[in-house]
Amino acid sequence: MSACGFICPRPTSNVHVLFATPMTFLTELHEAFKEFDYDQDGYLNYKDVAECMRTMGYMPTEMELLEIVQQIKMRMGGLMDFEDFTELMGPRMMGETADMLGLKELQSAFVQFDVDGDGIINQDELKEAMKTLLGEKLKKGELEEILKELDINADGSIDFEEFVMMLSIR
């Protein structure tokens, strides 16, 4: 698993990106999922979900585990596929990151990127932030690649949730 704080080197260039990508996050989730999918049928048994969560660095409370197990047993027949696992872990990892960094700090960092204050970071704002905050002048292709990796919902911009997600990668 990658260990990434706020600055991660991009393997394909000398440009340093201020954040890790959601694709890296999904890759890490998938690796953890595969590790605990013992029979490799594409499903986790409810008994293995807690250990898998802990492997990802998320420490659920006993009450939270009871609720999760109950939900998996009732709604999913005791098994969880990767899509369900992603839905379970994504918000929790984002929430944990928000708790660790503090919501106020995250919002403050987001505002640094969101120059026009419309609640999203567009390509021009990302380009300016990379130049101003990191001193990196990106070529158009590099900028588009970064935006594509971070833009989970493919709307052409980065919203606050996607911003928090990119900081959630460990």
Automatic annotation (TrEMBL):
Keyword Repeat: yes
Gene3D superfamilies in UniProt: EF-hand
GO cellular component terms listed in the entry, alphabetical order: cytoplasm
UniProt-recorded Gene Ontology molecular function terms: calcium channel regulator activity; calcium ion binding
SUPFAM superfamilies on file: EF-hand
InterPro entries on file: CaBP1/2/4/5, EF-hand-dom_pair, EF_Hand_1_Ca_BS, EF_hand_dom, S100/CaBP7/8-like_CS
Pfam families according to UniProt: EF-hand_7
Keyword terms, alphabetized: Calcium, Metal-binding, Repeat
Domain EF-hand per the UniProt entry, residue ranges: 24-59, 101-136, 138-170
Coiled-coil intervals: none
Name by which UniProt lists this protein: Calcium-binding protein 4-like
Organism: Neolamprologus brichardi
